[in-house]
């Protein structure tokens, strides 16, 4: 699928200073030529009124579309959206430490690692670590 097939649509855009818990404030969808969703980004509040200057990012790209630049394009849209919001100064995310594709993507986009929680999850009895990352979107 070439770059021209991508249509990034913005579904939801709500007032950024309402602090309803973890509500999606922005969703970006990438659709292929047939209108099928092949990638998404959700931006949410942390669910804490004192953290309303930060948003939390989650994303995914359909397996058939990976490693073709779509994840980075979506991420750049999301970062630009945050930069344009006066009250949003940080974009945060959490990623499983073993998720090399996602970690590489975020590092390449400029995110910094701010910490790692070892044994964050127990999945099938295995200790699984999670890495927290952030990007300044102020100024
Ligand atoms: C992480 C994910 C969104 C990346 O999307 P993508 O469209 O494949 O990413 P891109 O093609 O834009 O790649 C951008 C950069 O990410 C990194 N990357 C992507 N896939 C990679 C892989 N398989 N191995 C290593 N690095 C990878 C590279 O740095 C790449 O830059 P490069 O092409 O110059 O090497 C995708 O793999 C995915 O949806 N994974 C499952 C869901 C998930 O992990 N979501 C994140 C949860 S926090």
TrEMBL record:
Q: Which Pfam families match?
A: Acetyltransf_1 (PF00583)
- Molecular-function GO terms, alphabetical: acyltransferase activity, transferring groups other than amino-acyl groups
Q: Which InterPro entries match?
A: Acyl_CoA_acyltransferase, GNAT_dom
Q: Which UniProt keywords apply?
A: Transferase
| Boundaries of every N-acetyltransferase domain copy | 1-138
Q: Does the keyword Ribonucleoprotein apply?
A: no
Q: Which Gene3D superfamilies match?
A: 3.40.630.30
Look up keyword Transferase and say if it applies: yes
Matches recorded under PANTHER family: L-2,4-DIAMINOBUTYRIC ACID ACETYLTRANSFERASE (PTHR43072:SF60), N-ACETYLTRANSFERASE (PTHR43072)
Protein name per Swiss-Prot or TrEMBL: N-acetyltransferase
- High-level lineage: Bacteria, Pseudomonadati, Pseudomonadota, Gammaproteobacteria, Oceanospirillales
